[in-house]
Amino acid sequence: MTTDTTATDVFEEHRAFLLGVAYRMLGRVADAEDVVQDAWLRWSAADRSDVREPRAYLVRVTTRLALDRLARIRTRNEAYVGPWLPEPYVTDFGDTVQDTAERAVLTDSVSLAVLVVLEALSPLERAVFVLREAFGYPFAEIAAVLDRSESAVRQLAGRARRHVDERRPRYDVDPAQRRALTERFLAAAGDGDLAGLMALLAPDARLVGDSGGKAKAPLRVLESADHVARFLVGAVRKSLDGLTFRFLEVNGGPAVLVLSGDRPDTVFQLDVADGQVRTVYVVRNPDKLRALAP
Q1: Burial of 149 (0-12, 13-18, 19+ CB in 10 A)
Q2: Is the pTM of this model over 0.85?
Q3: Quick one: which of 22, 53, 210, 211 is 20 to 30 A from 2 by CA?
Q4: How would DSSP label each residue in 250-268?
Q5: pLDDT (tens digit, 9 = 90+) per residue, 259-280?
Q6: Residue 202, SS3 per DSSP
């Protein structure tokens, strides 16, 4: 690994993996891309003659850079207007991951529900959780990445796992079921069918809207099927003209991208359990939708 071409080739081989690590730690695509770019600058300037395992080296650099940035993000999020959701992250697990168990793990680790829970972890707990739960890293390797003892890493992992298990909403990961229910949900909302929406929503359904104060969306979480359904019928009735809808895979599951002309306007995604919609996620902050422009 002595030439610039070789260094570039090696980095590009691992770029998507590094972006996956950084995004799960930060919850924002732009921040994850910045971290990966910083990792490239360090990699390209480093003495790589004694680097035997490039991926291990790059994961260590990326994780530490993400930890540094996470402190700044937390300060920024404290002043956020209204509920906060991760930036929608386009995935293609359906095309690239054939193993059902592996897909379930990857989907869970990048889901909006889990990423929201991870926001409450300490930066080190989050790093350990991501490397251990999402990517299956052994504790000894995580200890080397974080420059901590293996026993300390095991303690961090235990605390993180307990926290996530206590707060993780239950949902189905079957993409076909979620897609079918999303289509029915979208049709009912578009038709102003209040009864139809109520039939699809769990009694304790929630709607979490993220606008950052830059678009119209509820500034608090809506609770109960009645409140969620009535809000959606009212919102859709006022804004259907000029909008188009496109399905895509976001954060490991089917989602709907709403376009106003060529401009991304909204992303919404459903968490489904036992055939009912448990949570409706609505992302309208334009800063979080730029990467989804056609």
Answers
A1: exposed
A2: yes
A3: 22
A4: ETTEEEEEEEETTEEEEEE
A5: 998 899 999 999 998 889 999 9
A6: strand
